[in-house]
Every structure is written in structure tokens, then in C-alpha cells.
Structure prediction request, 169 residues.
Amino acid sequence: MSRQYKKFSGHYNAFFEKVYRYIFFRAGRNKQLAEDLTSEIFMKALENFENYDETRPFAVWIYSIAHNHLVDHYKKVKPEIVDIEVAANELKIYDHAAKDLDVKLDMEKVQLILDKLPANQKDIVVLKYVNDLTNPEIAEILDTSEAHVRVLQHRALQALKTRLANVNI
Prediction:
């Protein structure tokens, strides 16, 4: 096994689940699509691993590939329109970890509202609060400034808070 392959394998093991989670939330919680896109992302990363600049964090590199791949995907395919009732039922299936009904309802509200945010705000929320990336990492992934990340983050959180207060499930 080559040294490069071993390095990539280590990164793959460390980041596969995180990238999958990012794609899962950005792909409308469509498990099959998230699996397919995540596989394509890591294939693209493997093919281009020789170009990876080891002075940059791997997380920034792989999330940049993931973000760009997702953008390309949605340029080619229009997202499905999902009935709100179907979405609510799917959320109940995915949220089997919540024990308290109030927590479960709040999570459903957040996920439904998250889906309604503009793509750039949704990216920020998922990268920051689901994948625990820092603002500098997110700025580099999205090819924007940290100040813009903070503005988008603030707007996204305000939108979530406002809409969460006004939603009844």
C-alpha cells in the first residue's frame, strides 16, 4: 500500500461520517442521495489527492470539494418539492434519538425551518453546528470572508429563532 493511499485512507476514516452528515442535511435528508454524493466526493478527492496542499487543513479541502460538488449537483438537478406532511413523517423516523416529545417536536420544527433557509445560510448552520467547524474554516470552504460568515450565521440564527417561534407542528 502506497504512502499516499495510507494518508488518504486515514483522512477518509476521519471525515467520511462528517462529510456524509453535511451532505445529508444539504440534500434534504435523502439518505440515498447523500450516500451517492458522499461517495462521489471521496472518489473525486482520491483522484485529486496528489494536489492536496498539506499546509492547509484537510477539513477545509474536503469540505470545499463537498460544497462545490453539491453546487454542481444542484445545477444539474432541480431539487424535489416535498409535501410538508411527508417531510414531517420522515422527520419522525430520523429523530428516534429524542426521548422527550417536546424535544422531538422542537427538532422537527428546526429541521423544517432549516430546509427553508437560503442555501448559504443553511450551509453555515450545518457546517458550524452539525459539523463543528470554525468560522475561519467555513470562510475558506465557502470562499468568503469570516465577516461574511458571521453575518450569514447571525441572519440564519435570527431566521431560525423567529420562524421557530411562529411554527406549530
The helical segments are 3-26, 31-47, 58-76, 84-94, 101-116, 119-130, 135-142, 146-166. The chain has two domains: 3-76, 84-166.
